[in-house]
Amino acid sequence: MKFSTCFSKNRSYLLAFLIVAMLNSCKKNNNEAPINTDTSLYFTVNETNNGSLRYTNLSGKPVVKFTFTEAINTATVATGITLKDASGAAIAITATYENGNKIVNVSPQSNFTSFNTYILSVNDQLKSDSGGRLINPVNITLMSGIDDTDKFPRISDEELLTLVQQQTFKYFWDFGHPASGMARERNTSGNTVTSGGSGFGVMAMVTGIHRNFISRADGLARVQKIVNFLKTADRFHGAYSHWIDGNTGKAIAFSAKDNGGDLVETSLLMAGLLTARQYFDGANTAETNLRNDITTLYNQVEWSWYQNGANSLTWHWSPTFNWDMNLKIQGWNECLITYILAASSPTYTISKAVYDEGWARNSAMRNGNTYYGVQLPLGSASGGPLFLSHYSFLGINPNGLTDAYANYEMQNKAHAMINYNYCVANPANHSGYGPDCWGLTASDIPGGYTASSPTNDRGVIAPTAALASFPYTPTQSMAALKFFYYKLGDKIWKDYGFVDAFNLNDPWFATSHLAIDQGPIIIMIENHRSKLLWNLLMSAPEIKSGMGKLGFSSPNL
């Protein structure tokens, strides 16, 4: 049967589901009108048919236009066409008619709310004027996108920065492990605390005192609690494991053979502790004891032992698997701080040759190519995930910092701008990407975790990427912050600040918070505002000596 003459001149418009029968609706018998003629339909959503039953990023009051092969009995529309939200609650609709009731335009009476799912159903209760039934009922999924209204009242930029810092601070203060004071790996980690994330947490404590979120006495007590815990926790030639039981201090395996010392995580922890040591400079007994304890913990890390006989540092050592993982710490990545702290150690130091051969790989970490209009001095193509420019520079000030291999102010600003420019260009055509919504780094993604970057783009934006880049891209980071808070705040602003990540393609919003992502937000916003953490760590005499030995030059040393 030639049904193309009955309902469309273009067969490609037909939906994938089959039309079971149309009887003889295309023909008349002795000029008599058909009786009980079955009816089929074609539809568009906002004048578009994408060949599926799923439509995303809709806003306002989308219009679904149904074109039927027969005139519709309008009295059956109320029960034959329904709209419900994800909970099953009915949503009031408006229906208008065209072409002798063969076209029905359906739209919600009120605007869709942001990032919600609605089901528009056309069922067999819908009848034609002649009493025929609908032979291809459909359920159309309509997913709303960004609702451009502000979700919270507007405040000044400075007030917004303080609000974000204070809310994020709660992750480390309110949610700190009750026995150890350490930072939990994530908001679902129970007793599992993280060594590197706790280093970030200690820097957050210092920031919290500086911003009057807590008192100096309370902050001092919490940091001392963490230090007391670390004095008795498992150590492996002075290095801590990545994960630790917050009650017992016993190492928790991060992976099959990673059940011992993690030198990179230890360096992130020590950077935080040394920052606190420089901050708590009072002459009273409590602050003096804290400084002494931190110095002892730092001096007990056997950095040079982790060379394993080579001119390079090794990431892991296990008491049961020894050096089996055999992962050399090589640049360019987030581990510059590991080499700086190793070179700065007065007890187990490393030589400049270890830095040059192990870290810089005799200059092989250089890049020099241009991506999205920006030249990148170091690292992989397009810079990699943004945390590479954050972790080492929570305490190391990159401004004016140079050595034989790079200008680190230029490196970090270039990295952030490449990431930003990529998201603005949006070559993968992801929903939401643009000047106000950018930032690719390691984060949770739907069903897992990945290190997002321009070369590994899953459509997932992590707020920490743009917000921890404030010192490098202040204008672009502020635009992102305002978008995250004012436009997406009803979805991603929670008790501990912004959730870890989100995807606006098929709208997904993480429910997680991670210590290693929350920490850089509060710390780098503070460095942007006052240089507090930079000034503290760079003031440590060991750091001045170690960076000088490695050939660094900076007005801040």
Structural features, described:
Pfam families: Big_5, Glycoamylase. This is Glucoamylase family protein. Keywords: Signal. It comes from Pedobacter ureilyticus. Residues 56-136 form the SbsA Ig-like domain. By secondary structure, the protein is an alpha+beta fold. The chain has two domains: 4-144, Immunoglobulin-like (Sandwich), CATH 2.60.40.1220; 157-549, Glycoside hydrolase 144 (GH144) (Glycosyltransferase). The chain is 32% helix and 14% strand. The chain has helices at residues 4-7, 77-80, 157-173, 195-210, 216-232, 263-279, 285-299, 336-344, 352-359, 408-425, 463-467, 474-487, 489-492, 515-530, 532-538, 541-549, and strands at residues 41-45, 54-58, 64-68, 81-85, 93-98, 103-108, 117-122, 138-144, 192-194, 243-245, 251-252, 261-262, 316-317, 370-371, 374-375, 442-445, 448-451, 460-461, 493-494, 497-498, 502-503, 508-509. The protein has a four-stranded antiparallel beta sheet, with no helix packed on it. A hairpin with a 2-residue loop joins strand 14 (370-371) and strand 15 (374-375). Helix 6 packs across helix 8. It is elongated, with a radius of gyration of 30 Å. The N and C termini lie far apart (85 Å). 48% of the residues are buried.
The appropriate CATH architecture of the largest domain is Alpha/alpha barrel
Any idea what the radius of gyration is? 30 Å
Question: Could you name the CATH topology of the largest domain?
Answer: Glycosyltransferase
Number of helices, counting only DSSP H or I runs of 4 residues or more = 16
Poorly predicted ranges? 1-36
> What is the straight-line distance between the termini?
85 Å
Could you say how many structural domains there are in total? 2
Q: So what's the overall shape?
A: elongated
Briefly, what CATH class of the largest domain? Mainly Alpha
Structural class: alpha+beta
Fraction of residues in H or I helices: 25-40%
Strand percentage lies at 5-15%
Number of strands: 22
Strand order of the largest sheet: 1-3-6-5
Largest sheet, if any?
A: 4 strands, antiparallel
CATH superfamily of the largest domain: Glycoside hydrolase 144 (GH144)
Average pLDDT metric: 92
Domain SbsA Ig-like: 56-136
Keywords: Signal
Pfam family, one: Big_5
Organism: Pedobacter ureilyticus
